[in-house]
Design brief:
This protein is α+β, with helices and mostly antiparallel strands. The chain has one domain: Cation efflux protein, cytoplasmic domain (Alpha-Beta Plaits, 2-Layer Sandwich). It is about 30% helix and about 30% strand.
Length: about 140
């Protein structure tokens, strides 16, 4: 578990599950221009990872530093370094703004470029049903 200490009147600790960070990273990344889709790094992850964590891997070292690895397919014709740097920036900002946790490194792994004629998946299809994306 990733710990976030709250020093307000010593109320206790707030523990944020890595799955929460995975979800924040997935949604943030899926909203970046130039992204086609997220991708798991191995077939076994396809079977084992929840859909909201697809393509996102969180690790924390012994010093408590949090790293994020994101595996993506980009759309054909985009500036790959520019999109990758935008993904890094947006992930760091979103996670910090929503949790107060500073991300040490965001490693973007571009797994491929998708041809122009391939239809882009709908946002809700990236998250198997996407119930948590429905704003009601």
């Amino acid at each position: 578990m990733i710990m976030k200490d709250v020093q307000v009147e010593n109320l206790g600790a707030v523990v944020i599950s890595p799955r929460v960070i995975e979800t924040i990273v997935s949604i943030t990344t899926s909203n970046i221009d130039g992204l086609y889709s997220l991708r798991n790094k191995s077939f076994s992850d396809f079977l084992g990872k929840n859909s909201e964590g697809r393509g996102v891997y969180i690790s924390q070292d012994e010093d408590g530093l949090v790293d994020v690895d994101v595996y993506v397919f980009l759309s054909f014709g985009v500036n790959v370094p520019s999109v990758a740097m935008n993904i890094q920036k947006e992930i760091k900002e979103a996670v910090f703004n929503m949790t107060g946790i500073e991300i040490n490194d965001v490693n973007v792994h571009v797994s491929g470029i998708v041809p122009v004629k391939t239809p882009k998946p709908k946002h809700t299809d990236l998250f198997d049903g996407g119930d948590f994306l429905d704003a009601e």
